[in-house]
Amino acid sequence: MGIKFDFRTKLLVIVLMMSLVAVLTSDILIYTLLGLLCIYLLIQGFYRQTVKYFVVCCVFIVLRLYSDGNGVTFLMPEMFLFMILRILMMVMAAQPVLGMPPGEVVAVFKKIHAPNGIALPVTFTLRFFPTIRSEFSDVFASLRLRKLLSWRHPLDAMEYIVTPVIFRSSRIAEELAASAESRGISNPGVHSCRRKLLFRKRDWIMCVAAIAVTVMYFVLERTVAV
Amino acid sequence: MSGYEKRQTVVSFENVSFQYPGAKGSSVKDINLDIKSGEFVVLTGGSGCGKTTITRIINGLAEKFYEGTLTGKTSLLGCPISDYPVYEIGKLVGSIFQDPRSQFFASITEDEVAFGCENYGVPFEELETRVAEAVRGINGEMLLGKEIYPMSSGEKQKIAVASVSAVNPKIYVFDEPSANLDMFSVEALKGLMGKLKEEGHTVLVAEHRLYYLTDLADRFLYMENGRLEKEWSSEELLQLPEQERKTIGIRIADLHKIETAIPEKAEQSEILSVCALSFAYRRKPVFENLSFKAYSGDLIAVIGHNGVGKTTLANILCGIKKEKSGKVLYCGREVSWKRRRNFAYFVTQNTDSQLFGDSVAEELKLNRKNAEDGQIEELLRLYGLYEWCDFHPATLSGGQKQRLTLAVSDWIDTPVLILDEPTSGLDFQNMRRISDHLKSLAEKGKTILIITHDFEFAAMTCNRALYFSDKSHVEDFSLQGNLDKLYSCLMAQ
């Protein structure tokens, strides 16, 4: 179960998180923010996902502490660990919008008068995440069968993994976009939604809390930097 | 035809040609076509003949989405198609695409069915009624509230039809709708199409498989190299001489006319033995106590409805997945799951995920770095791919990619080859090419398992069938004199 927030609330959390990811440099602030994101997911009922994110966060925090700024072998340079934690912050903030009903997403974008140039790519991206997962799984299976997956040649392996996924993704994206266009996604008129779009008291509370946390982290970041 | 002559023309093409951006020539040329209200028209012809382009011109995607160049006059319900924005055409023309995986947006059935109506601003109070009616129309009440991702292709295709019918368009355009469906689902699709026709909708279907459309279609239009070349009624198509049908390269219209070509086998050495194999996914059994044997030169059709565990079995046999219990023996020796890839190779449906090279020739070199150019040329010529040896695999057509994955499997040369739906979306010529090639591999002693729903292909290629009737029962039978049984197994739910 868990608390259901309006799409606009979730969107605000993502935007605030983007600004924090761009600004924060202090490790302790990043680690505590990851903790807050776990709480954000838990209150919305993403229990299994929270456990997974928590474990991954812990592993990378330990690796980062262990590396002490020098990276862990050539496979995990410091920059890689640094980036993974930031990517995790974005993914955790975006988790609640993945799998949302597309009609609700489109209707909210229409309601807030978001330009099509932003609204349509976001809608497609939300649909796209589950597809990517199965594409990676197919590619890994084929690579294992052809015995092309090797730790001895990590760069080759990376190229073999990424190239087919990119080609396949672009094909699926094109088919999805064609399907959406033929079903009226670009209709400039009114879009309705089978779920009522309500910005409730809980959304106000969440938005105020998210803005307060963001301001606090900006201030703390400046204090730590000084 | 006569009944339709007085009716309104809903789609009209006058000397229409269309060229995609960057393409060397036109995909369709000088098309003249009138489709009347309530008519059921089937477009057929070989891969790349222009069927899909015709459907894209009608639903407006050709010009507005693919941004190609159209010449000639087109009209939809009396107005030029180019005058409509695509979202307006969506209210008039409902499009159902080939691959059900890449045409849905929502995660649960009701949201998906409502999506089109939501885009057209159907009032909140009316949405639930429209969704309920559309779901009732496909007999899909049992799909309500369910996640779409784990559904079978047939169920996804049903939802695609419901989500289009909720908008209530006048015209339905289907692009190879049966390509990913088992025969039982094809029958269900036929029922849905029949209902649309009864309700007075105009239906246009671009399709290779014709057998399920002969009861429904008013006209079959045959295309070749972008031109409309022939037109038949259902009766005329059914009476088409077999030799003529094979020459022009269309799939069979009457399944009773299928000729079997059971390959003869000289020796019987046991290559694969599966003993009491079981597999479970998240503690839910997929299949239990599965046992069978396969011999050198066997061409086995692995059949059964979607989700019964055929692909899982293939994954276990080639070492991608590990069984829960049981044994897999190759050449009489038990082989651990990690070592099975030395004995079996699996060509999956998703060809894009199996090609990794920078060029067609490089694709083969990945598995044999020291291969001589002559060897590569010989193999590519065998598969009709030598002309494309410097092309990137991603730029090949679907049929060419499929042939390249088969060439790779020849190169890897394991004693057992497993293929998943090798004829999905293929025309007759390419299907026959693959069938002949697999038979020649079997003659050389390779054991081949083919996961298929395609009766025509199985009958002309395989000598045995493994029928997964349920998770604990697999029936193994010879196809010699058993085509009726193969048909009834493929049609079983």
Please write out the topology.
The complex is a heterodimer of chains A (226) and B (493).
Chain A: H1 7-23, H2 27-43, H3 47-67, H4 78-94, H5 102-111, H6 116-145, H7 154-182, H8 201-225
Helix pairs in contact in A: 1-4, 1-8, 2-3, 2-4, 3-4, 5-6, 6-7
Chain B: E1 9-19, E2 28-36, E3 40-45, H1 51-58, H2 61-64, E4 69-76, E5 79-80, H3 86-92, E6 93-96, H4 109-119, H5 124-137, H6 153-165, E7 171-175, H7 183-198, E8 202-206, E9 219-224, E10 227-232, H8 234-238, H9 242-248, E11 270-281, E12 284-295, E13 299-303, H10 310-317, E14 325-330, E15 333-334, E16 344-347, H11 360-365, H12 373-382, H13 398-412, E17 416-420, H14 428-443, E18 447-451, H15 455-461, E19 464-470, E20 473-478, H16 483-491
Parallel strand pairs in B: 3-8, 3-9, 6-7, 7-8, 13-18, 13-19, 16-17, 17-18
Antiparallel strand pairs in B: 1-2, 1-4, 4-5, 9-10, 11-12, 11-14, 14-15, 19-20
Task: Give a written overview of the molecule.
The complex is a heterodimer of chains A (226) and B (493). Chain A folds into two domains: 1-100 and 197-226, no CATH class; 102-194, no CATH class. Helices cover 73% and strands 0% of the residues of chain A. Chain A has helices at residues 7-23, 27-43, 47-67, 78-94, 102-111, 116-145, 154-182, 201-225. Chain A starts with 6 loop residues before the first helix and ends with a helix. The model of chain A has no long low-confidence stretch (mean pLDDT 87). Chain B has two domains: 2-257, Rossmann fold; 270-343 and 414-491, Rossmann fold, CATH 3.40.50.300. Chain B has a six-stranded mixed beta sheet, sandwiched between helices. The interface between A and B is large, with 51 and 62 residues.
Provide a brief overview of the structure.
The complex is a heterodimer of chains A (226) and B (493). By secondary structure, chain A is mostly helical.
